[in-house]
Design goal:
The protein is mainly alpha-helical and 194 residues long. 68% of the residues lie in helices and 3% in strands. It has two domains: 5-102, Rna Polymerase Sigma Factor, Chain: A (Orthogonal Bundle); 109-190, Winged helix-like DNA-binding domain superfamily/Winged helix DNA-binding domain (Arc Repressor Mutant, subunit A, Orthogonal Bundle). It contains ten helices and two strands, in the order βααβαααααααα. Strands 1-2 form a two-stranded antiparallel sheet.
């Protein structure tokens, strides 16, 4: 995002009194302008923060842009209790979390079987897939009924977590924990990549 200068509109007199303090950000909240150099420094800092936490430059740039848009939409709620950089970083942190929440959590067992059955040596690939499936089926009875159901729905039937949680009558976080525990027990029981 290219800025020559951004002039923040001054809030009401009560908000200006509340925001008064030694923070540089409070001055910005009361109407001081941010010059191009300051904005570019902030953008660089935000990009570096995002880049350390996501897989590519492109995603990091998109997150920084989304952060600027969210910040511009929320200027009226910026009270200057923290620096502008801290406030923007908090917004960026939530944007990064949103990216990870939307991502499919793991490769399912059916995806692994598909990759194994489409390798160069069909006989070996099918044999490996069959062995892996047998080990999973042998280890499933060692799980609690709830863990087994979670692994079967998410891993074998390839349901999304939302639908699996609804079927089991659980919240998504509870399903996530149950699924994690079930997969861990599968790995321990049969050295299976669940």
């Amino acid at each position: 995002m290219s800025f020559d200068a951004v002039i923040l509109s001054p809030p009401s007199a009560d908000a200006a009194d509340e925001a008064s303090g030694t923070f540089e950000a409070a001055d910005a909240a009361r109407g001081a302008f941010l010059d191009r150099e300051t904005l570019l420094d902030l953008e660089d800092a935000l990009f570096r923060y995002a880049r350390r936490r996501v897989a590519s430059d492109e995603i990091a740039r998109d997150l920084v842009q989304e952060t600027w848009l969210a910040a511009l939409g929320a200027l009226d709620r910026f009270a200057g209790r923290a620096s502008l950089k801290t406030w923007l970083t908090a917004i960026l942190r939530r944007k990064i979390a949103d990216v990870y929440r939307g991502r499919k959590p793991m490769t399912s067992l059916t995806d692994v079987e598909h990759v194994l059955t489409t390798s160069n040596d069909p006989f070996t690939a099918q044999l490996d897939a069959r062995r892996r499936t047998e080990r999973v089926l042998e280890a499933l009875p060692k799980l609690t009924p709830r863990e087994r159901e979670a692994v079967e729905l998410c891993g074998l039937e390839d349901l999304g977590r939302e639908e699996a949680a609804d079927r089991m009558g659980l919240s998504r976080p509870c399903l996530r924990v149950t699924l994690c525990r079930g997969r861990k027990r599968l790995r321990e029981a049969g050295d299976v990549a669940a």
